[in-house]
Design a protein that fits this description.
The structure is a homodimer of 191-residue chains.
Chain A: H1 7-22, H2 29-36, H3 40-46, H4 50-76, H5 80-97, H6 107-112, H7 117-140, H8 145-169, H9 173-189
The structure holds a DNA duplex (30 and 30 nucleotides).
Chain lengths: 191, 191
DNA sequence: AAGTTACTAGACCGGTCGTCATAGTTCGCG
DNA sequence: CGCGAACTATGACGACCGGTCTAGTAACTT
């Protein structure tokens, strides 16, 4: 059962990268394969479900990666308010450094491939896992469970929206505004 | 110079609709033309810039339409806090009634055609015009200009993010959470 | 009737995703 | 060790659809 090549992993890697920056429909199989140095036939060997399955798995990986970053940031930082500010700073940096190409790794695909159920589900799970991290951090800081859930939703929505605006405007100001707002909101909640 | 047909307008209309629900790359010219009952050759007569120009103009129309709804809602309602809640309720209804297809008319395209400069600009202008409406309403309610700008950014980001999450999850809860949060935030600011 | 403008049909070529017959590689078992 | 079965990999192929453009028809003007 052990694999002999890393083709499958390489494909997932390049797929995650391309879907992140271009979205689902804008990313062609040829581009994907040539970027990963893989022949066409291999795709349907490793991913019988074709492009759709490849995308769903790649999104799960992207979601997991950011989940880990989130968790680490929230554990390390000095309270959830500060953590979120740090985190947004990190997102802003990534976005600007990529000439405003690398925003949220899920949102582009979540919107442009919303009619594919497997893909939609993969994105929903990614978002859910991120929200859970926020929620845990908030309850950990002493906020009631019910309230923490709502607040985590607001945090995630605001960050996603700010990423969208920043990417569209080629300007990180929306991220900074949202970071400040969220920090104040959270710290106001903690007393 | 006077036109003899309404082909151009019909094309813009169907384009706005399809780009709204499917995004840029997922919408083919054939689908677009057959849906609008328009002949293929006409595209490059009416839109020499091709698909890209058609999209940019359609987005400007979509942006303008929502701009009008926003302005009217904010003028009619009893203060900006209530207005935003009403507005989000309206967005949630539209989204749910369309089986979670009709979210923000710009965001899908803004993300999946971000590398086209004309399209990016059209989206940025749409977002900007919406934000200006919020900003005016907030300053009109007595909030300082500088602060109103930041707050309007947060409002827009939160609403956009909530639409994204709601669409992906097939659940309007994020919209409700954000509506409640924004109302409280704004009304807290007004005293 | 001739000229000008408004519009349209369909051919075009490159690229789309997906399939398949075949080739190469590794392993279990006699 | 040697053989065959199972696993892995390959790229040519095809049916179709993508956006674009040229060559043409229809309508109005003078």
């Amino acid at each position: 059962m052990s694999r002999r090549t890393d083709t499958r992993d390489r494909m997932l890697s390049t797929a995650a990268e391309l879907f992140h920056t271009q979205g689902y429909h804008a990313t062609g199989l040829n581009q994907l394969l040539s970027a990963g140095g893989a022949p066409k036939g291999s795709l349907y060997f490793h991913f019988p479900g074709g492009k759709e399955q490849l995308a769903a798995e790649a999104l799960a990986i992207s979601g997991g990666r950011l989940h880990d970053v989130l968790r680490q940031t929230l554990e390390t930082a000095d309270g959830p308010g500060a953590a979120i500010e740090t985190l947004i700073g990190h997102l802003a940096e990534t976005l600007a450094a990529s000439e405003f190409r690398r925003g949220c790794p899920l949102s582009t695909v979540a919107l442009d491939a919303a009619d594919s159920e497997p893909i939609r589900r993969a994105c929903a799970e990614g978002f859910g896992s991120w929200q859970a991290v926020f929620e845990d951090a908030l309850t950990g800081a002493g906020i009631a469970a019910r309230r923490a859930g709502e607040l985590a939703t607001v945090v995630l929505a605001a960050v996603e929206g700010a990423l969208l605006l920043a990417k569209t405007r080629h300007d990180t100001a929306p991220l900074r505004a949202v970071a400040a707002h969220l920090r104040i909101t959270i710290e106001g909640e903690l007393r």
